[in-house]
# Entry
Amino acid sequence: MMSDSPLLFYSSTHRQHNPVDHPEVPQRIEALLEVALAAGGQLREITDWGLSPLLAVHSAGLLNFLPWAYERFSSLPEGPRAAIPDCFAVRQLAEYGASGYIPRTIWGQLGHYCTDNLTPILPGTWPAAYGAAQVALSAAAAVGDRAPLAYAVCRPPGHHAYHDLYGGYCYLNNVAIAAQWLVERGHRPAILDIDYHHGNGTQAIFYERADVFFCSLHADPEEEYPYYCGFANEVGRDEGEGYSLNLPLPPATEEVVYLRTLGRAMNAIVDFRPDVLLVSLGFDTLAGDPQGEMRLQPASFRPIGRALAEAGLPVLLVQEGGYKVASLRPALLALLEGIAY
Ligand SMILES: [Zn+2]
# Structure
């Protein structure tokens, strides 16, 4: 029984990022915060840790680009509108891939830094993304200070963002920034990604490292975004070999198979002997999610929470996806009950 109530970290700056005709809406996070408070969570002040913890994960090029991209794009003759690339660098096909060259124009840079056309840059995108990273860092600091459970109610999400690429609704990789911050303070984090989609950005950031374990349960990339990674044979490279574990599942997976696979993930995590468990928490595994095909019910998150707690580690929940707003409240409530069980 975990008696302490969860510590909650949240920034209202997320509301400034409000894409039109898009599933990643502010109401998601407002619903999650509301139910976490109703469940006894204690809202804590967030600290502004500045840019340096972001630079420990992301390239200076990406961090110079994102804050100004909307303004630069909007100064084109066509006038203000969401900044979305129309062309992609596909860097492995380009001679400049390894040269450090960065295109000069805003159009060239959009295609250089972005993976897809799903991830618009709007007037409030940078403040929201920056705020979400500070939320994750503040929650990491609480866990580093021995809080048993902290919930970073982050928006926009982060796990599809790479060292120098944004995409998949993600701009900065909140969970990776939190994990790196903990590593620099002597911790040994494991990251469990239970979003419906593979945590490709997080995996790539730690792929050659042995000091952070990354494990993801997700819909098989043969069928689902991000399509090009998240296969079972991706296990890490060089020093990181054996420190990435991918458990792809059929898109229509139901609770029994999901929980069995989660058990495998938790065994591997315990074998790594981490001192903190970071969870990339997606609710897009719920039945009826517009972005997923899995068939978990809100109540499925109670045994999921229990499985997380059984590792006996401090838990840092970092919010990722989940787009069926009506199901978010009961699912988060069940998860928190499961962790506290
Ligand atoms: Zn997702």
